[in-house]
Amino acid sequence: MEKKNIDWSSLGFGYIPTDARYVANYKDGAWDAGGLTEKATIEMSECAGVLQYAQTCFEGLKAYTTADGKIVCFRPDLNAARMADSCRRMKMPVFPEERFVEAIVETVRANKQWVPPYGSGATLYLRPFMFGINPVIGVKPATEYQFRVFATPVGPYFKGGIKPLTLRISDLDRAAPKGTGHIKAGLNYAMSLYNIVDAHEQGYDENVYVDSATRTHIEETGGANIIFVTKDGKLVTPKSETILPSITRRSLLQVAKDYLGMEVEERAVALDELESFAECGLCGTAAVISPVGTIVDHGRRIEFAGMGPVIQKLYDTLLGIQMGTVEAPEGWITVIG
Ligand SMILES: *Cc1c(COP(=O)(O)O)cnc(C)c1O
To answer: If you write DSSP's letter for every residue of 298-317 in order, what string do you get?
Structure first.
């Protein structure tokens, strides 16, 4: 199969439309058969539910080429389950989980020429999403929805080497107790934009959000979960109902336990105890783990090892599992072609 003529290693993280995307429509209480289309634009009412009241949620995962030349996806069933949770919380109809995985597979198969080769560091990013499409003016859930999956090739995350991040403890919040922090809704991002632009202007890479009720515990950043490594080599990650359950973080916890024999703690993490950690990293689909060098809590600076030995081992093992050089747990890799 001919690949597209792209310099994969110089790609950034931007939208490049590919040949095909998947579309299914929900109307009169049922999903239609769905299928692939070449059309990358959407026509809808000016009064569509998504435009007026932001009724939309999304997912993100990647397809890539393994060391032995297979095109695969990593744990798409967990994206399907998480999107179902998001839909229930947003009063949107669930797109059946088996059909979600099938839509991913169909989209990747139709865009095989866009899946970057092994070793390039690039991947084909997949963006499933759903939104209310019929006119809604009185505040209520839409009655008609569209589910779509598009694909876009993205470059290696750590272009030009791994540079440890500098984070700041945020004074603004992303999620309220009993709110929507635990689902992947666009609204969680819309209200974080002000704060991320401000963080960049002040010279920080990301905001670390704390629990908004007491402002004493660490939650996560705007788009990634946080892991810490204690000085005696334990993996610690914050537990909170307002954190988005990252598939990467959940996978890393299992890798730490089952592959590296580490002790793992999922518990409340106090701002006060940051000095007791040796390493810190952000985890998400795009980078797997981004090492953190510094967290600034107003006048206080806490330094970490950056790509320290434990984070490096976690990163290498999970990346090896994804790329097929380390044996994967049952069901983690979905082979597409
Ligand atoms: C998507 C997302 C993550 C990372 O989740 P993965 O499943 O690992 O990609 C973390 N935090 C937030 C707020 C997110 O939206």
So the answer is: TTEEEE--SS-HHHHHHHHH
Catalytic member of 4, 112, 178, 184: 184
**Residue 57 pLDDT more than 90?**
yes
> From atom 12 of ligand 1, which residue's Cα is the shortest distance away?
223
Cα–Cα distance between 16 and 5 in angstroms, integer?
13
Provide the CATH number for the domain formed by 8-154 in this structure: 3.30.470.10
Q: What is the mean pLDDT of the chain?
A: 97
- As a whole number of Å, the CA-based R_g of the chain is 20
User: Is residue 82 within 6 Å of ligand 1 at its C-beta?
Assistant: no
Q: What is the pLDDT of residues 116-165, one digit of tens each?
A: 999 999 999 999 999 999 999 999 999 999 999 999 999 988 777 789 99
CB of 61 closer than 6 angstroms to any ligand 1 atom: no
Q: What is the pLDDT of residues 192-248, one digit of tens each?
A: 999 999 999 999 999 999 999 999 999 999 999 999 999 999 999 999 999 999 999
Rounded Cα distance, 274 and 297, in Å: 10
Phi, psi (degrees; rounded to nearest 5) at 200: -60, -40
Q: Which CATH number fits domain 165-322: 3.30.465.10, 3.20.20.70, 3.30.1700.10, 3.20.10.10?
A: 3.20.10.10
Supply 176's token pair. Answer: 């309220």
Domain ranges within the chain, ordered by starting residue: 8-154, 165-322
Task: Confirm or reject: Cβ of 248 under 6 Å from ligand 1.
Answer: yes
